[in-house]
Structures are given as structure tokens and as C-alpha cells.
Amino acid sequence: MNRSSTEIADTCAVCVEDSVTLHQCCSNKNDNLCESCWSKMISTDIEKGRIGSLFLHKLPCNFCNEPIERDRLPNDLQTRLNNILLTIPKTKTPTSIEDFNYSYKDSNHLRHCLTDEKFIFLSQRHYNALGNCIDTYIQSLMKSDPWNYREIWLPEKTENTDDDDHHDQVNIFTSDDFETNENGCLILLQGSGVVRPGQWARSCCINESLDIGSMFPYMTKAKEHNLSVIILNPNQTSYIDKNVIDTENTTSSATTTDDKETTTANDPSSLTDEELLSYYLSSNPLPRPLTKKIPNLSTNREHVLYVYDNIILKSPAKKFYIVAHSAGGDGLMFLLRKRQDSILSNSWKIAFTDSVHSILPLETNEIKTFLKANAIHFVASDQPMGEELDSVYDFSHGSACQEVSAGHPKHEYTSGCCVEGVFKFFFPLNDNIDKTKF
Fold first, then answer.
1. What is the pLDDT of residues 305-335, one digit of tens each?
2. What single DSSP character describes residue 30?
3. Could you point out which of 31, 39, 123, 231 has its C-alpha 20 to 30 Å from the C-alpha of 416?
4. Spatial CB neighbours of 116, under 8 Å, sequence gap ≥ 6
């Protein structure tokens, strides 16, 4: 039964303005608020990522600090909150963003399927589950028209095995002309963390747009300049050892009933809405499966070196262009040191994007000269994109190359905001152009 309680009162306890109808939404009878104030209060909690606590009956009223009772809120607010609840999947193992009632539809912006609202944060667990489905969504686009990228599993296996069993491998992607395009090849190398092929920043794919968070704008530019493309996957360095749970690293609080997804049936009919709500909004860590390192690809650096030796060298491209974001810059520098002669003997252009790389005290003069002549670093900055900056990342040994603004002050936005600058550096209008003035 709806327990909505309204009272006629002279003034709202927050804005102290006259209101015909006030709402008492917690146990404190003296705190009657108008609909406008409740709307502002709940909207603030949504913006600050606290709204999940409301669904668990743990969100305190900003005015009296008592837990807010959701079913006492104004009807319009309850409707909005019920729509937010629809983003809780009906299963513990969602496979698509539609399971969350989100969609990119005909736009590059993630939106609620029914209300067209932007993504609303409920909990880290819910966010991570959605992020995993976005990984799948982006890679499915890469393998479909008009991209038709090829998925390659590493390390490559020679023995007869199940073609669908890739649990102990890592996937990378190449354009369909990778082995035939002689004009040039674009290499995309993301930073550390949860990002997988096709992404620079998961948070931007969710909260901003695929134009900023994904690699599709770079893939589009590659087509315009007749470049093949290879996309690495340096963060997936281990695989799950099937059906083994790391009990030593699982706290007792993490093995409560709602977290035992490895032993409970996932039949939607066996899970109530309250159980699913409790599961997705839980702050407890999930049990961690035991993992094993992927041979020869067990670190970011190993991954880059392996892909270069076994895949990139197969490309017939005469010129190579690489974009390395964040920790990808460290992987690239490792590759330069390990394969200096091979790389420096070819035509390479490098664009670092808010990268973590450095010139070591014993760096060879050949690498220093090569970077000064062939590399640029787009740094997080609120200055216009392409504006030259004083050395930002000198690491006590001087900057590796020219440093310019990426056009955005936030690290995760840099690759998406400087794509035009990157390609103007790769393909200047003429040889005399000042490459730091776009």
C-alpha cells in the first residue's frame, strides 16, 4: 500500500515559502518539504552518486538526517525513481547494455531506453557490470559493418583446439586490410585499468559519448588517410582458472547470500526483485576467481612486445603511426628500447596522449633524437588544443618531445579531444608547418 503522506502547511521547512501541499518523507514530522525542494534534494543525490542508498533505505534526509522513505515522496519523483530501478538487470549475469535498459540507439550517447536520461550511478558493482557489457557492445560494432575488423586471439595456437575456447588468450583487433595495406598502419595503444580494445576511457563511454571515450573517431580518420589499423589489449594479462575461487582473498562479508553467484542458480524466476536490488547495490566485494598469467603476455610491456614481434611485423605498411595513451606510453617506450634498430629504420610517427613515459638517464641518443623529430605529447590542459606548453612531464631528464595541450584538463578525455590535432601532426599540410600550432 502506498504510504504517501501529504499535509497542508504554511511553509516548507527548507525554502520557507508558502506551499499548498507539503510532503513528510521521513520519520521527523516537523520536516515537511515542498515538491520542489524534494526534487532538488533527490537530484543532488543522483548527481553525487548517492541515490543507490535510497533504494536500500539508507539515504539520510539532508535536512534532518533521518532515512528517507521512498514511497512517501511526491508521485513525479517516485515515477522517476521507478524508472531508475529499471536499470537493475533481471539477472546476475547480464550480457548486453539492453539488460540494463540502456542503449546507444542511433546516437553515440548512452541513454535510458524509456526516459532518455543519461546514465545514473547506483553502485560500483552495477557500474562495473554495465561497463563489461559496453566492452562487448563496442567490440561487436568493430566486428560488424562498416568496420569488419578481424579479432585475433593471442598467443596463437597451432595445435587442434576448440575454436570457441579462448579463456586462456587475449584478443586484439585489426582492420580487414591490415595484411595488404602498404600505405600505412595506425597502431592504437590504450592506458591501464579496465579499458579493452576499442576504448580509451570507460567512464567517458558511459558518462560522455563514444566520440570521446572510444577509438571509433581514430578508426574513421584512419580510413580517410588510407591506413590499416591494429588495436592492442595490454590490460588483459591473465585469465580465469575455471571454477576456482580465491577464498583466501575473499572476506567473510563478501560471501553473503547475495554474493554467492558462483553457487546459486541464475534462473531469473528464482531471483526476486529485492534480491537483485540487494545484489547490484551491495558494497561488498565479489568473490575473486583465481587467475593465471597469459604466457608471453603477462604484463603491459610483454603484450606490446609480443604483438609487435608476432603481428605488427607482418604488416606491409611503409609507414607506422601510433597513438599511446597514459600507461600505453610506458609500453611504447619499452618497445622502443627493445626493438630500437627495427623501429628506427622505418618511418614512424608517435602521438602520446597524457602519457606516462620518460627519458631515462642512459637513454640512447638515437631514441632521444628520434622522439624529438617524430613524436608529440598531447597533455591534459585547459588551454586550446594544440597550444604549446612548458615541459609538463620532464621526470628530471627533460621532456621526450614537444608537449601541447590536448584541449581538455581531465586525463580520461584527452585522447578523444585531440584526435584532430593528432592527425594534423601525422599529416601536416606541408613540411614547413609548425606542428604545435593547429
1. 999 999 999 999 999 999 999 999 999 999 9
2. T
3. 123
4. none
